[in-house]
């Protein structure tokens, strides 16, 4: 066998593997296949094609649904297939079907899946996203998140993406205290009153205190619904700024708010 043949062969050798994963999205592909977008337990986002899955659901019974935690058997990947692996089999670990029965939990779940898809590029592993996704889906399977938990979720997504805002004072002058704080343009921190914060999006002293406690993974002292709402609005805006777009599921999320 010539050297060239070996090189060619290495591109099509099986690299079949098993992976635990959460299904993010499932879309029809042609007449009989499904394209499955998932995040695996190493925090790697990828897509795979489930051949024939639209015709016969037996091999993938109940597995290929968003929110499902599954064990995937992935087939070999061909050179030049642009990262599209082949999904041979799937076994259900946790269906998380109760999420779909509570509209609020469902809208929060859709939002989370959209955030993961937006902030985890295909390829590089982002392990923090895996634990976040796995843990939050377990909660949503039992109940929706409250507003403080939503703020925590948004902050954790920013943090996992390496985009957590600086919370050590004013980004412009370094002041540690201010009655109001505005997110600065780049969405990487906050500016104080004196540094020319403007616009309707701001939070009070208690908002920043709450954010600092959440960043330290502590529950805020007491809760102030108005401050929590402002904080969520700011974090949601920051996520949109970093992603370069607003999220489709935001409107759905707002519509399910009591
Ligand atoms: Zn300042």
What is the compact description of this entry?
The protein is of the alpha+beta class and 258 residues long.
What characteristics describe this protein?
single chain, 258 residues, alpha+beta, OB fold (Dihydrolipoamide Acetyltransferase, E2P), de novo design (two linked rop proteins), 2 domains, five-stranded mixed β-barrel, three-stranded antiparallel beta sheet, 7 helices, 20% strand, elongated, binds zinc ion
Order of the strands making up the biggest sheet: 1-2-3-5-4
The geometry reads as: elongated
Could you tell me which ligands this complex binds, including any ions or cofactors?
zinc ion
Count helical runs: 7
CATH architecture label name of the largest domain: Up-down Bundle
H/E element string?
Answer: HEEEEEHHHEEEHHH
Portion in helices? 25-40%
Number of domains: 2
CATH class of the largest domain: Mainly Alpha
What is the overall pLDDT average? 90
Give the terminus-to-terminus CA distance.
69 Å
CATH topology of the largest domain: de novo design (two linked rop proteins)
CATH superfamily of the largest domain: Recombination protein O, C-terminal domain
- Please give the largest β-sheet: 5 strands, mixed, barrel
Whole-angstrom Rg: 22 Å
Number of strands: 8
Stretches where pLDDT is under 50 for at least 5 consecutive residues are: 9-14
């Amino acid at each position: 066998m010539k050297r060239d043949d070996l090189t060619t062969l290495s591109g099509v050798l099986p690299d079949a593997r098993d992976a635990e994963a959460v299904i993010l999205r499932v879309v029809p592909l042609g007449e009989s296949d499904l394209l499955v977008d998932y995040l695996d337990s190493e925090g790697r986002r990828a897509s795979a094609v489930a051949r024939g899955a639209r015709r016969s659901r037996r091999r993938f019974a109940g597995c290929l649904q968003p929110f499902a935690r599954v064990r995937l058997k992935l087939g070999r990947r061909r050179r030049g297939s642009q990262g599209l692996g082949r999904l041979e089999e799937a076994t259900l670990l946790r269906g998380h079907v109760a999420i779909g029965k509570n509209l609020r939990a469902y809208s929060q779940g859709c939002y989370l899946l959209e955030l993961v898809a937006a902030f985890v590029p295909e390829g590089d592993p982002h392990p923090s996203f895996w634990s976040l996704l796995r843990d939050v889906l377990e909660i949503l399977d039992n109940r929706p998140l409250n507003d403080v938990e939503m703020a925590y979720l948004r902050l954790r997504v920013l943090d996992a993406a390496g985009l957590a805002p600086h919370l050590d004072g004013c980004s412009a002058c370094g002041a540690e205290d201010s009655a109001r704080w505005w997110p600065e343009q780049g969405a990487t921190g906050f500016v104080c009153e004196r540094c020319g914060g403007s616009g309707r999006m701001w939070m009070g002293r208690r908002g920043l205190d709450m954010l600092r406690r959440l960043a330290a993974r502590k529950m805020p002292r007491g809760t102030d619904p108005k401050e929590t709402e402002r904080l969520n609005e700011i974090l949601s805006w920051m996520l949109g700024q970093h992603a370069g777009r607003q999220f489709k599921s935001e409107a759905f999320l707002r519509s399910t708010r009591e």
